């Protein structure tokens, strides 16, 4: 998600259905109290989970 992947791309990478990927994304956003994938990406960079792209 922090790399800007779509639900389908996440699903393909994890070998799960697109619906399951969508559910996981929603759960992550809810648990982190974030409202968008953009906020999740910023959170991941700020926490050092992924390197900033540049």
TrEMBL record:
The keyword Transcription regulation applies. The keyword rRNA processing does not apply. Residues 1-48 form the HTH luxR-type domain. Pfam families: GerE. It comes from the Bacteria. Keywords: DNA-binding, Transcription, Transcription regulation. SUPFAM superfamilies: C-terminal effector domain of the bipartite response regulators (SSF46894). InterPro entries: Sig_transdc_resp-reg_C-effctor, Tscrpt_reg_LuxR_C, WH-like_DNA-bd_sf. PANTHER family: DNA-BINDING TRANSCRIPTIONAL ACTIVATOR DEVR_DOSR. This is LuxR family transcriptional regulator. It comes from Streptomyces graminofaciens.
């Amino acid at each position: 998600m922090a790399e800007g992947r779509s639900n389908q791309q996440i699903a393909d990478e994890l070998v799960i259905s697109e619906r399951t990927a969508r559910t996981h994304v929603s759960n992550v956003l809810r648990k982190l109290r974030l409202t968008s994938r953009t906020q999740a990406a910023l959170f991941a960079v700020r926490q050092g989970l992924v390197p900033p792209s540049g």
